[in-house]
Amino acid sequence: xVSSFTKQLLDLKSNLQIARTLRLIWSLEGRGMLFVVAMIxxxxxxxxxxxxxxxxxIDIIAESGGHLGTHVEAVIRQILIAGALTLFYNIARxxxxxxxxxxxxxxxxxxxDSIHAKAVELDLSFYESPGYFDKLQRAKEAGxxxxxxxxxxxxxxxxNLLSLGAIAYLFIAIDWLLLPIMxxxxxxxxxxxxxxxxxxxxxxxxxxxxxxASNYYSQLIxxxxxxxxxxxxGLGAYLKQCYFNIRMRLLTERYKLTKQQTTREIAxxxxxxxxxxxxxxxxxxxxxxxxVTVGDISIFLVMFPQLFxxxxxxxxxxxxxxxxxxxxxxxxxLLDLKSTFDDPKAARAVPQDDEPLVLKFxxxxxxxxxxxxxxxxxxxxxxxxxKIVAIVGANGAGKSTIIKLLNRLYDPVSGRITLQGTDxxxxxxNAYRKQIGVVFQDFCRYHVSVSExxxxxxxxxxxxxxxxxxxxxxxxxxxxxxxxxxxxxQTVLGRVFEGGSELSIGQWQKLxxxxxxxxxGRFLVLDEATSALDTQSExxxxxxxxxxxxxxxxxxxxxxxxxxxxxxxxxxxxxxxxVEEGIPEELIAKNGYxxxxxxxxxxxxxxxx
Length: 609
Ligand SMILES: Nc1ncnc2c1ncn2[C@@H]1O[C@H](COP(=O)(O)OP(=O)(O)OP(=O)(O)O)[C@@H](O)[C@H]1O
Hints:
Elements: H1 2-10, H2 12-63, H3 72-121, H4 130-142, H5 146-174, H6 178-206, H7 208-222, H8 224-232, H9 236-288, H10 294-335, E1 358-366, E2 376-384, E3 388-393, H11 399-406, E4 414-419, E5 422-423, H12 429-433, E6 436-439, H13 450-455, H14 466-475, H15 479-483, H16 505-518, E7 523-527, H17 535-549, E8 553-557, H18 561-564, E9 569-574, E10 577-582, H19 584-590, H20 593-597, H21 599-608
Helix pairs in contact: 1-6, 2-3, 2-5, 2-10, 3-5, 4-10, 5-10, 6-9, 6-10, 7-9, 9-10, 14-16
The structure holds adenosine-5'-triphosphate.
């Protein structure tokens, strides 16, 4: 038992996390926290002074031997002192409670902000790693209240130690023997608590992975994204059972431990009660012989439960500090992650002149961060501003990967991507990305207003002109359905918020296109941006694409010939390599892989003619 307690105290990693947590709190809310600590000390001082004043009062009453008349003044003075101290104690307690709540909320907000800043700062490769998700999930699970919990547990422990010191002083003042006698009877209960809090902590760590599995099932059962399939495949009962089985496994282990703890605690608290009565008998015996006063006995009666709870709170406090430090570990793990690509210290300015820009892939090869398989091999591509360039290929050929590299979400493993002859790694990634508006294949549906959905395309703009937003929507073919929404451009979308309107997948896709068109970049990337559009909408978009592109360049990924044939140039990708390239009509004439890819479309086209 003792070894587990000392193990906790000597656990170096936990100690480092506690120190770092305190440094974090200090850096965020140092003064406020000092105030909280000071108020707690003041509160404790008032509590024990008021108790001591009460003891004095009882002693005066007892000494008067039933003739209070001669002691009235002393009694009134003592009552006033005890009353004033109790009042000050209550005020100090209220102030320390209020200030600690405020400080805790402030620290929690700062911490949430840091976690969000880290999630935004890290590059996309982190989202490929299950390890990152584990860290993010653990940090989120740890909760923003942990630093405060560590601090409060430390402060409470200090406060309880102060109380123990004050109680010990009072007991010694009555009779020093009381202290060792009670320690013998009370300590076993404390030990049981320490040992079982340690065992509970170990159980929690052991079961983290199972706990996550149960969270996964719970999320699956309740999420909107899985609601349709769960109903149509009738998966509800099965998934519910999976969740239940895991929870039962977790609960059974927990119950077993709690049961053991309870039986041991019953025995040790019985021992503590024996200790209490032994001390009482000892005190009464001394009182009979006039060695202690009635005030001493009264204060002993008041102090004994205080001693018990202060000891209990001290040991619990130490356990809480260490348990919370494990959670802080998860938060610090996340905050310590470093982005894998750093912007250059002296970043080049992205060319702003009117001269048309050219983006180039030069001998680019690439594999994803956690997969050594090359998905692009020595590819050369050219995207000039003012032209529409198509990238075509079968599923898995590497088209979307090119778009991710183009947007500098990853860097090539060899070769380079250039803008106007300069390696794009020499620009700041934010400034570079401002040149490219993208509709990703798996675009995002923002559950905010229609206007915001479009304005997100150029969030740095100070004022969003509603005419410009409408223009982007019209170009994307979205204006019609937006006008029919209850509050047209001010309608909140999705079902996450009260009164939101849901769109069809095709309508969401048109909105994503409007967002990219609203983007100020000189290139527009459409990665299968019309996959959910009806033929009429798709034809409408591409028929006018060239006119509203103006001087911008476009890079279009599509599986439909009707779209690809609008391009000035096309690259044909097969298993990560460019196997054909040229003007679409010439590629058809070649009758090679390009023609094979669009065979069915071509048959339809010719039958339409
Ligand atoms: N995050 C990833 N980690 C590892 N491999 C990936 C990742 N994303 C894609 N891949 C692999 O890279 C290859 C190219 O994928 P990519 O998404 O670029 O294909 P695509 O041509 O866009 O296909 P589709 O037409 O189906 O959209 C595939 O073999 C795929 O398995």
